[in-house]
Amino acid sequence: MTGLEAEAFDWSAVTWVAVDWGTSNLRVWLMGAGDTVLDERSSGQGMGRLQPHQFEAALCEVLGDFGDRHLPVIICGMAGARQGWQEAPYEAVPWMPKAVQGVTVATSSPRLSVTILPGLSQHTPPDVMRGEETQIAGFLTQEPDFSGVLCLPGTHTKWVKVEGGRIVHFRTVMTGEIFALLSGQSVLRHSVGAGTDWDDAEFDHCVGQSADISDLFAIRAAGLVQNLSSSTLRSRLSATLLSMEVASVVDIWQGLEVVIIGAGGVGGLYQRALALRAAKVRQLDGGQLVLDGLRAAYAVLGTN
To answer: 11: exposed, middle or buried (C-beta count within 10 Å: 0-12, 13-18, 19+)?
Structure first.
């Protein structure tokens, strides 16, 4: 939105502000009557670039001049981390979105009423999430009777068991980060390269097989002995790690429906890996689930 457009925006129709504050980016939705989206804005002022005292200014910069309006603001994500605007302590599972409790943040501007949503924690095995719980809350607004497993692929993929409208158990797997480290900093970087070319046939062949840690150096050896291309070896590395991941969490997903939140891309690779193991799996475009989860939180917290 340009400065001229921001000046022309009609703030009188805004009832509250929904915010998804990640490590790298900030997304803001200006909400009107009936929880309709009047405008959407974003910036690169993610949590990783800010000190606690800078968050309010970063938010106000995105909002622009909202005059004398009083704005309730509901925030999910990394703004509530220990290094964020203000820590919103984790709530323990089992957890139900309808029981969400937020942390009120003191602001310099009396026109802002800011609430940050908590993340979730699990004692055994120890685990945490922050931000994904809001996506899951959004999913449950669409499928309140869902019973099964939600898979949220990413740098740190979440496998989440849901029963009776509650998150009852979850596990985080660092496959995305491990892939980045191995392909960029280990000896495998000489084999897989830094490109994005892909070998679908190689991926499907390898992801359907069992794998263990000893298969990783074999990728390097295959490049030297068999003269395989970097795209084939890159696909083999991805398939090997994903095969190990899916096997490591089989106790969570086996016998249950799995919904992968995220269309195409990495989500599609997870779908193929699970389908090859005869899992009941489907993929869902989760683009609006965070906003749906923020709407659900506002329904609980907005009048408090």
So the answer is: middle
Joined tokens for residue 181: 């480290």
**Which of 120, 91, 115 minimizes the C-alpha distance to 103?**
115
- Under CATH, what is the fold of the domain 131-290? Nucleotidyltransferase; domain 5 (3.30.420)
The DSSP bridge pattern shows strands 120-122 and 91-92 to be parallel
Q: What is the CA radius of gyration of the chain?
A: 22
Instruction: Sketch the domain layout of the chain as residue ranges.
Output: 1-121, 131-290
Which residue from 128, 62, 138 is spatially nearest to 100, judged by alpha carbons?
138
Confidence (pLDDT) at 7: 55
pLDDT tens digits for range 43-72? 999 999 999 999 999 999 999 998 888 999
Amino acid (one-letter) located at 287: G
How confident is the model over 245-303, as pLDDT tens digits? 999 999 999 999 999 998 778 999 999 999 999 899 999 988 899 999 999 999 999 75
Q: Comparing 1-121 with 131-290, is the CATH topology the same? A: yes
Residue 84 and residue 47 in contact, taking contact as beta carbons nearer than 8 Å: yes
CATH topology of domain 1-121: Nucleotidyltransferase; domain 5 (3.30.420)
Whether residue 209 contacts residue 276, with contact meaning beta carbons closer than 8 Å, is answered with no
Q: Which residue has the tokens 């943040």?
A: 105
Written as six digits, the tokens of 39 are: 């405008």
Cα-based distances in Å from 187 to 16, 139, 162, 192: 51, 40, 40, 10
257, 269, 248, 140: which is closest to 203 by C-alpha?
Answer: 269
Question: What is the mean predicted confidence (pLDDT) over 194-204?
Answer: 89
